[in-house]
Design brief:
single chain, four-stranded mixed β-sheet, about 290 residues, seven-stranded antiparallel β-sheet, 2 domains
Length: about 290
Amino acid sequence: MVMLCIYYKVYILLKSIKYFMMKAFKFRLYPTIDQSNQLNQHIGSCRFVYNWALNQKVKTYEQIGESISRFDLNKLIPNLKKQNPWLEEVNSQSLQGMTKQVESAFTRFFREKNCFPKFKSKKNPIQSFPIPQHYKVDFENNTVKIPKIGEINAVFHKTFKGELKTASILKSCTGKYYISILVEDGKEFPVKQVFSESTTIGVGVGITDFAVTSTGEKVENPKYLKNSLKRLKVLQRRVSRKQKGSKNREKAKQKLALLHEKITNQRNDFQHKLSFKPVSENQAIAVEL
């Protein structure tokens, strides 16, 4: 009887909790040279702390057979800063966010049986670091204020209202900087709409055609990669002929990365425009698996 009362109270508590929608926004940043150096320093320092935390968890488990929590790792960061004074110039919450990422990686490994967490490399195409809080977005002045760095110019293609949650700074392989912001807009989840056969559309992905709908509409495959394949071969050949470690090789790799980025942007733009129409005109979409 006592257990039933406890379960009933928990049920009432969960029923009273309101769940609000979370939205993510991504904007392009335009830092100065000094700000770019500071962002790169944050990225390198957070990568260093991530690898250090991963190494600590592995060593602790090998020695005592137990896993060290991220809270215990956070307590060791001050001593790590004494050994590496350059870490003092980086936002402390960003460093603590890396221990959280390590713990999340181990959680996914044990629950979802994913691959064992790997050490981060500076050669990864996308580098990033988290900003848990204390950052500000100014739509009037088109700036984003980041702890330890200051106000950075940004381009806002849209505005939003709500409570700012976590954010991440991303650096692409072409040297461009972006900020990804998670916002809680305060709106409750929409009521599930009733749909019927007339308000449902089926979409099948093909080889000859990019997609075929249940209404008989066919979408041609744009083949952006095929159209740029000739130029890609030229740039890849130039990279292979350059001496490893030279500046000319880095310049050639940059041009190759820019073309790959262009192809990716073309694909994303095509898919977003294509998916907007069926989402706007139908209540349900059926996709083949």
